[in-house]
Specification:
heterodimer; A: 256 residues; alpha/beta; Rossmann fold; 2 domains; six-stranded mixed β-sheet; 9 strands; B: 330 residues; mainly alpha; MetI-like fold; 3 domains; 14 helices
């Protein structure tokens, strides 16, 4: 579904060129949940943005569903969830979810139905008429995810969506995200800073390191698809987390 | 109103300071009058009086002070004189209109009586003059706001305009309105445009600039994340404008509107001054200065200030209601 070969991205800055991505080779198949983890500046967000056609690579190839990322964007192949919910305060939650639907030209009745379905998916039924400032941070982020799901894109790209939330809310949302994934069968690309989150959620973990941004390790998770929260205390889980940490250490994430 | 008490306190302080200043401001005139009247003053001759400092004069001639307060053609009239002049020319006129033979004499006065309607037509009344100034102000404000918004949209969406319009807009504001107002009115009258429109155009000239500056900032206020979100939806420029940029710019627009409407009122009054207008608050200022009626000048000034405060307050109320409904301020 998403195929990167020899992907390179160099930013020209005032301090000289910054090699944000170097020779990234990665294949993401349909239905996978792939987490990207690494320290700041390792290129994980940059890679996600390249897939979303928000950045242009300077070398290598990248295809999404067999098309260039730009074509995929115009075909509405993915939904993007940012770190902050980014809901418009002058629209209700339903109005916010309708934003992409209005832009994409869905009919009014279609819009209403999709809003209803997607609110139910993220467990926010009945909150359609509320305004964003009436909701907590976790609920706002769920509304943002609902917005990304509203137009039936196959791919969901999430850039540290739970980064601004506390751990208890995070755990709850992680569970809900896995349920969502099971129900909708999307392909999910997930950027995170948290090792337990990455190991808990994904079928494949991509460990990256900075300067230049590159992939240090790709871990295929042996954990089953059905995962209760308690799986985080099992030895298999800890073994994978250990391997991730080793990968980070190899990429000098813990050096000064 | 929660802020009624603070406002009244500030007004009371201003009135107090005003009252204190009346004496010193009129002192030299009163001293001059006393000297001519043959009273005993220190120093004795007008030449020496001109050379002595004010404080010295006040200390040496304390008995002239009451005369300074009661002076007939003062430089700075007493607050109560200004207030009574305003009253006389607004409500007082309404009550007296009946007496001038337009109807049966009535002691009770209600806002719906004939006398009150006449106040707005009566050439002596400040309300008439205030409306003569407010009408072009409101029209000029509307024109200026419309023009300002159009220019701002052009600046944000067109690179050429972005680079070229702003310096000209700033330069336009540096030209003294007092100088070009007569020219504008004469030229427009020659082309056949008379009455309300020339004054409105001058007023719009002063009010478009804050709107341009505010709207440009407002239209550019959405952050990178909001803009990226719309890019992921492949939204067109027009969709981005109507759905994101315009709603985000409203707080900035209202801030500019408050400045703009005050500037529009100033613009209209300034437009009246050099062109010898017969009606309007500016014309009252002019006639007051021609005939040495300082109280008339001050009454017109205070009336203009009250009008400006009312206009800004109205915009403030509209701002609060609109922004609260849009969730942009709580």
């Amino acid at each position: 579904m998403i195929k990167a070969q020899g992907l390179n991205l160099v930013f020209q800055t005032n301090d000289g060129p910054v090699h944000a991505l170097k020779d990234v080779d990665l294949e993401i198949d349909k239905g996978e949940f792939v987490s990207f983890i690494g320290p700041s500046g390792c290129g994980k967000t940059t890679f996600l943005r390249c897939v979303a056609a928000l950045e242009t690579p300077t070398g290598g190839s990248l295809t999404v569903n067999g098309m260039t990322p730009d074509e995929a964007r115009r075909n509405r192949a993915y939904g993007y969830v940012f770190q902050a919910a980014g809901l418009y305060p002058w629209r209700t939650i339903a109005g916010n979810i309708k934003l992409p639907l209005e832009i994409m030209g869905y009919s009014r009745s279609d819009q209403d139905e999709r809003v209803k379905n997607v609110l139910e998916l993220v467990d926010l039924e009945g909150f359609g008429r509320k305004y964003p400032w009436q909701l907590s941070g976790g609920m706002q982020q769920r509304a943002s995810i609902a917005r990304a799901l509203a137009f039936d894109a196959d791919i969901l790209l999430m850039d540290e969506p739970f980064g601004a939330l506390d751990e208890i809310v995070r755990d709850h949302l992680n569970e809900q995200l896995l349920e969502l994934w099971a129900r909708t069968d999307k392909t999910i690309g997930f950027v995170t800073h948290s090792i337990p989150e990455a190991v808990y959620l994904s079928t494949k973990i991509v460990v990256m390191s900075p300067r230049p941004g590159r992939i240090t390790d790709i871990i295929d998770s042996p954990l089953p698809k059905e995962r209760p929260l308690d799986i985080r205390d099992t030895p298999e889980f800890l073994a994978i987390a250990h391997r991730v940490r080793e990968g980070l250490r190899a990429g000098h994430a813990y050096d000064d | 109103m929660r802020n009624l008490l603070p406002i009244l306190t500030v007004v009371a302080v201003i009135l107090g300071l005003w009252y204190l200043a009346v004496g010193p401001m009129n002192f030299r005139l009163a001293l001059d009058a006393a000297t001519r009247g043959g009273a005993d003053v220190t120093p004795a001759t007008p030449d020496e009086q001109g050379q002595t400092g004010l404080i010295r004069l006040m200390l040496d001639n304390p008995d002239v002070m009451p005369a300074a307060y009661a002076f007939e053609r003062p430089r700075l009239p007493q607050p109560q004189d200004v207030v009574s002049e305003i009253y006389e020319n607004t409500i007082g006129l309404a009550r007296r209109c009946e007496w001038q033979g337009f109807g049966a004499e009535r002691d009770n006065w209600s806002p719906l009586s004939d006398g009150c309607l006449r106040v707005i037509e009566n050439r002596r009344s400040l309300i008439f003059h205030a409306w003569q100034t407010l009408a072009p102000t409101l029209l000029g404000f509307a024109i200026g706001t419309g023009l300002g918004i159009l220019l701002a949209v052009g600046i944000v969406y067109n690179r050429t305009m972005d680079l070229s319009v702003m310096p000209w807009a700033i330069a336009s504001q540096t030209i003294p309105i007092l100088a070009i107002a007569p020219m504008v009115i004469v030229v427009l009258n020659a082309v056949g445009i008379q009455g309300l429109l020339p004054k409105s155009l001058i007023s719009s000239y002063l009010s478009f600039f804050p709107v341009v500056v505010g709207m440009v900032k407002g239209l550019r206020s959405p952050g990178a994340m909001d803009l990226d979100l719309l890019r992921t939806y492949s939204a067109s420029g027009a969709q981005e404008f109507w759905k994101l940029r315009l709603p985000s710019s409203l707080p900035y627009l209202f801030a500019s509107l408050k400045i703009g409407i005050a500037a529009a009122l100033v613009g209209t009054i300034v437009a009246e001054l050099p062109t010898g207008a017969r009606f309007g608050l500016g014309s009252r200022l002019l006639t007051g200065s021609y005939y040495g009626q300082t109280v008339q000048i001050w009454a017109a000034l205070i009336m203009a200030a009250v009008c400006a405060a009312l206009l800004v307050w109205v915009i403030g109320v509209v701002e609060k209601r609109t922004l609260t409904r849009l969730g942009l301020v709580r």
